[in-house]
Structures are given as C-alpha cells and as structure tokens.
Protein 1
Amino acid sequence: MGLSFGSVLRRGVLAGMLAGLAAAVVIWLVVEPVIRRALVIEDRRGMHGGQAAGLPMHGGEEPLVSRAAQVVGGAVTAVIVGVAVGVVFAVVFARLRDRLPGSGDFGRALVLAAIGFAAVSLLPALKIPANPPAVGDPSTVGRRTMLYAVTLLLGVAIAVVVPALDRRLAGRVMAPSTRWALDVVAVVLLVGLVMAFVPGTPDQVPADVPADLVWDFRLASLAQLAALWLTLGLTFGLLLERAGAARNDDVRADTGAPVSA
C-alpha cells in the first residue's frame, strides 16, 4: 500500500470523525423533526390518561435533561461512534485491502463501506426496525436489543462467509459471471434465513401513532446511518488516494527513497 498502518489508522479516525459529523447533521435536520412529532403524541397521552389505557408512555413528567441538551448529546455521541467505526474500518481495510474489489483505494474504500452499511446497518434495520419514542414498551428494551445485536452479528458473519466462498469459487475453473451469480445466490439465501428465523420486534404500533410517522422515523434513522457510511467510505478513500498521489510525486521528485506518507 505504501502507507504505514499508523498512517491508515489516522486517516480512519479523521474519516470517522467527519462521518459522525455528517450523521449528526442528518439527526438534526431529518431525525429530530420526526422525534418531535412523536413527542407530541406522548404529551397528548399524558394529558388524556394514556398510561391508564395501556399505551406505552414515556412522557408526562418533566425530563431530567432538556430536549436541546439531548440533541447536543446525540450529536456528540454520533461523532464518538463515527470515530470508533472509523478505527475499525481502517483496521479491516488494512487487513483486507488486497482482497477488496475496486479500482484503487478509493474504489476499495467505497466497496468496504457498502458492505459495512449492508451488514451492520441495513440488515438489522430491516429485521428490527427503529421506532419513534411514541412506540415501544420499556419492558421489551432488553429483548429488542438482544435481537438487534444477534441480527447485526449475523450480518457480519454473512459479510465474512460470502467473500470466503468467493475465494474458494475463484480457485475453480468457472466463468467470473457464474461465480458472481453464485455469490448473489448465497447472499440472498443467507439473508433470507436471517429474515425467516430471527424473531421480529416484540412491540406493536399503538393505534394513536400514524403509520406515516413510523415510516418517516425509520427512513430518517436509516438515512442517518447511510450518511455515516457514505461519508466514511468517500472520505477515507479520498484521503488514501491523496496520500498515494503525494507519495508518487515524492518518488518522481526524488530519485532516492520515497517519503513515507
């Protein structure tokens, strides 16, 4: 690669920080307005005895932390998570760079980001979709978290198994198109098994929550995750491409040993 592991890791941290900032912007502009719509329903339940009617109610009392502070805290958390994801992304990229498809490090970074989004974000979101504050029973939080974690781990397992299968198929005499078709079949089969056998969310959407609110929140939450992964892949790839270009310039300018990036 021409870059030390520490250099790749630093670029992963920077790309992760920018990805977290992008996710925070989406939270502020897209997710937060939907959350406020859901909080209106919770407040209405508090005024009309929603708890007595058996509806999930998390409002009705003054929050210990203001909504503005919660938004700021969510943005800070998004940046921290982005940095953590960036570190893991850089480690995985450095380990698997030569096995990733794509033209140059920029293309490889985008491919890895797409795989990460599909395995870590999209599959769990499809199986255990996010719900706004007005939906969900506090007593089921543990079960929902466990199911989400199981689905995430299975998504990562699929992301590991399918490339391993592809490498085995590559050792056989077959057309690349046939190998890729078998890869697609394997992905569809494994994802289908996850969707069929992992239990779904235990929560039901209350009658007073509009369907469009639920879908708006789920799409907004998915947009936040997509922004994180897209920004991570683009930024990390651009940083690596820029480092490679700078290194090539150093090689052309100096007939001695190239300057390390």
Note: The two ends are 11 Å apart (CA to CA).
Protein 2
Amino acid sequence: MVNPHHQSAPVMVVAVPFPAQSHLNQMLQLSCLLSSSYELPVHYVGSSIHIRQAKLRCSTPLLLTKIQFHDLPIPSFPSPAPTCGGDTDFPAHLQPSFDSSLNLREPLLPPS
C-alpha cells in the first residue's frame, strides 16, 4: 500500500560492469531496459575501450541515447596472453588490469 504522506526520493542508476566476468553486454541491456521502460536516468561507467565494445554490440543503438556514458581515466597497462595449464586457476593475465584500477582514487565528478 502506498503511503500518500511518504515523499519518494529521485532514483538514479549507476551501472558499473565488471569486464573480467563478461558483464559488459548484460549491464548495457539492463541499462537500456531501465532507461527506456522505466524512464530512469542511467549512468554507465567504465573504461573507454569497454564502453566502446558494449556500444558496438548493442542490437538497438537508438536506446543508447537515453544513457549517459562516463569514461574512467584508466592508464595503459600491459596485457599479457593467458597461460594455460598453470598450477592455479587464477587468471594471472588479468592482474595488470586489476592493478590499474588502484589508480582510481579520486572522486568522480559529473560532467560540467
């Protein structure tokens, strides 16, 4: 039951996909659904290369116009090839990518 005296706060969605888990497309599809069907403001945050990949894979590019994309300033990092048959299942080739995220210490400011 809706309380008529309750003031609802505005809702904003911040979508931050985790590329190592292949969340780029799924997060973009969810963002498109929330922005188009529910008219929610959606901010999709990631590195410029990952945002570009997600946009190129979008089956309905018109829906992208309702989403605000924000590039995180991630410095370049080495990208070694994966090693198969190692002693551990840890994806060591992704470690430089994880380490580069340690540079994201500053607050993210909205575009002016």
Note: Helices lie at 24-37, 48-57, 95-100.
Protein 3
Amino acid sequence: MSGPESDFLRAAQERGYIHQVTDLAALDAKLRAGPVSAYIGFDVTADSLHVGHLMSIMLLRLFQRTGNRPVVLIGGGTTKVGDPSGKDEARQLLTEAIIEANKAGIRRSFAPFLAFGEGATEAVMLDNAAWLDELRYIPFLRDVGRHFSVNRMLTMDSVRLRLERDQPLSFLEFNYMLLQSYDFLELHRRHGVALQMGGSDQWGNIVMGADLVRRMAQQEAFGLTTPLLTTASGAKMGKTASGAVWLNPDRLAPYDYWQFWRNSEDGDVERFLALFTDLPMAEVRRLGALRGAEINEAKKVLATEATALLHGAEAAQTAAETARRAFEAGEAAETLPSIAHALPSTVVDLLAAAKLVGSKGEARRLVAQNGVRLNDAPVTDPLQPVTAADLRDGAAKLSLGRKRHVLVRAG
C-alpha cells in the first residue's frame, strides 16, 4: 500500500511513532471504519512515570486526538510478577501497600495528557488486578495455557536473552507473557479493545496477545510498537547523571523538566519536537532545520512546549523566563530550584545534596574540569567552603556548567 489513510496511522507514521504493526492494511481499514479502542500497559514499579514512558503516553494522546479511545492499563496484577523484557535479573517484588501507593502516583502522570470520561473517544484507566487477582490456576491453564507453545515462548527475546546469558529466569517471570496476553483478551471482552501498543521490546508479548484474542474470541486483533528511543549520542532516553526524569512535579520540579529538554542534543531536536509536542509537522521541520546558534531557539521551543503539556503553560513560561534570567541576564532568579543545607559546607557536598551530580567523585571531576561556579565565580577547589558570607539575598547560586543551577539557602 502507498501509505496509511487513517488519521491516526498517517500522523503516527509521519511523527515517527511506528516501528512494527501486525497488519498495517487491516488496521488502517478498521481505523477508517470508526473509533477503535487501544491500550498500553504500565506496571507500577514507582510512584511516578518518567520520560522513558513519555512516547507511549504521547502515542495514546495522538490516538485520542485522531478520534479514537485510549485505554490506560495499570498493572496492579502484573507488577506482582515482573516483566522480564529487557531485564538482566528478576525485578524486586513489591508489597501490596507499595503497589497501591504507586498506582495512585502513576494515575497523576496521565492527567495532563488525556481526557478521561465515559464518551466513545474519552480515555479510561483500568487495573488488571481486577481480573488477574481472581484467576483460578487450573481453569486458567486449561482455557488459556493450552494456546501457548513453550517452544515459541523460548524464542521470545525476553526469555531467550536471559537464557543465553545464563541468567536465572523464574517460573513466575516466565508466566508474564501469558498474563499480558490474557490482559488483551479481557480488555477485548470487557471493553472492545482491538489494538495493543507498546515499546519495541514488547513485540513478542503483543503478538501473542493478539493471537490469543483471535483464537479465543474469534475476533481480529492488532499490535503496534514504537521504536527504541536513544539520544543522538546513543544514550538511553530519559536518564541523567542524577537519575530518572520524572513526570510528577513532586519528583521533579517543572524548571528541571524544562532544563532536561533544553539540554537536548542538536541532532535530537526535530525528532523530539515531533514525538513530544503537539506542534504541526511543518513547524517541527522548520525548527529542526535551524543550524548553529539558532538551534538553541528550537531547543527552547521544545522545552517550553513539552513542559506546557505536562505542567501547564504558566509553569512552562515561568521556567523559560527563569532560565533566561539565570543564563542570559546572569541573575539568581528566585524561581530557580533551591535546597536548604547547613552552612558552612563544601562545594562537593552541596553539589551532591542538590543532586546536580550522581556522586561526590563526579563533583570533584567537574570542579577539576572548571565546570562548577559559585555565584558565577569559578570553583577551583572541591572542598571550597560555602558559608553564610556567600549568600546573596539569602541564597548562593551553585552552577554546573552553563545550564544547571540551584540556589543554596541556610537550613
């Protein structure tokens, strides 16, 4: 076929969301025929999602914006098992109390991106614990397990790679693909879901789920995966020296989220604008074509648009203005992130306390590389004391490079 005709697949392909589809032509026809329900599953291993989940969230957003119904599946049940995909070892099992707390936090991650409700194209959030916790083992094996070939399961990357590395794979984890496939079947039965989407590492599980729906419900079912996302330099998307880039504001301030996008590599700007903003593709291509110093303006647009989607336009503009004052006007803006710390202290201790670095060893290396400033003055000694005399209007500005700053207050 020359290219998809449905609004969703055409836009998803143009913006770079599509890696694999089980039957592109048939899915395109189904989408053209009317609203389709599709889901993506999210296990609840933390109390917030992070930027590594953002492509999936934005894909659900695009799905809704093109007239379809997104289903967010919270893995209250599957989290108790642990997905072996992409893992070198078994995931730590969480208690029921932690899982419940994490579910509440993750629900907040979706609110800015999707419109929830009861309408035909309004998003719904479900928890697979509703059916997985009630499963009876023998009936499940008889009804569902008989459709799975162990020979085929052993060829799936999530299993094969662990076995090739001679790393242990528990029977608990081996069951994960059965449970994920069963999720698809239950969502089809209960909510008419016809499409499962997810990251490229989920392809095997998604194909097996679509196959289970066809076998047990005698209905067509589809799968779609997004490409593995790395930065232009090959680094894993969403990771920094100080850890994950969280979506919930209680885990990461809007200013720091803005800075994450502002610090994108030049080669990533056009791709990130397409994936992580709602800007029209004509504007995305115009910004992506900028070169030299002008690319920094495109990065600011990326940062402001991405931050506005998550935290709102006001927070995004505040972050942009804070950055302008801090970087271009050289001011210690009051809206910069701040920490309270007992003074006197050393520069290396404050860098670690502010989480500007992953370790004190990294802080010492950055000082040696002339990458640290205190109140805009270069720091040459990692053990340089910071005292009350260094405070300006109640705070000292500690800077890592040109783009990361924190205000240190006595506390």
Note: The chain has three domains: 7-226, 253-328, 338-410.
Protein 4
Amino acid sequence: MKKLKDKIVSILKNEKGQGMVEYALIIGLVSIVVIAVLVLLGPAISAKFQDIINALK
C-alpha cells in the first residue's frame, strides 16, 4: 500500500510538464493578439497594398 501511495505522490509532484504548459499558454496568447491585430488593421494594410499596385500600373 505504501508503494502505491508513494507512486501517486511522485506523479502529483512531477513538474516536468509545467514548462511546456507555460509555453503553450504564451503561444496561445501571442496568437490571439496577432489575429486581433490582423483583423483590426487588415483593411488598412490591404488598402496600402492596393495603392502600391495602382501606382505601379
């Protein structure tokens, strides 16, 4: 019984995956910010590219 308890305690104290979870959360947050910026500035960027295309014609 003690062996089982020790195994469960060691699994609960394992922090190897903590760093990966933190990186995943940071990547998720950065992705959300990038998508929001593209949605907000997308039409303005598209208009600038269209101006450049028109100037080259």
Note: The radius of gyration is 25 Å.
